Amino acid sequence: MKMRLSFAALTMALALSGAVSAAPAKHKTRWSAEHKAAVKKCKEDYRAALKEDKTKKGKERKEADAAARQTRKQCIADAPK
């Protein structure tokens, strides 16, 4: 009987510790309207650049795609928080 109670107590303690540690992980960051608009523009510019890159071939296309990715990354980093 004592072993069952000990096992039940240990199980409940582990279950509660897992639930408590998972609760703060649900926090979401809310971005400002300016940030959302800037990110949307960055994404639109990136899509336009990729569409334009489809006219190129080979190494030029690969370099243009890499430049577009880098530009998008920098644009999102520069967006107001």
Q: How helix-rich are the residues, as a percent range?
A: over 70%
Unreliable spans are none
Strand portion, in percent? under 5%
The ordered string of helix (H) and strand (E) elements is HHH
Shape summary: elongated
Mean model confidence by pLDDT: 84
First-last Cα distance: 58 Å
Main pleated sheet? none
- Structural class of the helix and strand makeup? mainly alpha
From the alpha carbons, calculate the radius of gyration and give it in angstroms.
Answer: 25 Å
Total number of strands = 0
What's the helix count?
Answer: 3
What features would you highlight for this structure?
single chain; 81 residues; mainly alpha; 3 helices; 0% strand; elongated
Question: Would you write up a description of this structure?
Answer:
With 81 residues, the protein is mainly alpha-helical. It has a domain at 31-81. Helix content is 78%, strand content 0%. It has three helices and no strands. Helix 2 (33-53) packs antiparallel against helix 3. The longest helix has 21 residues, at 2-22. The radius of gyration is 25 Å and the shape is elongated.
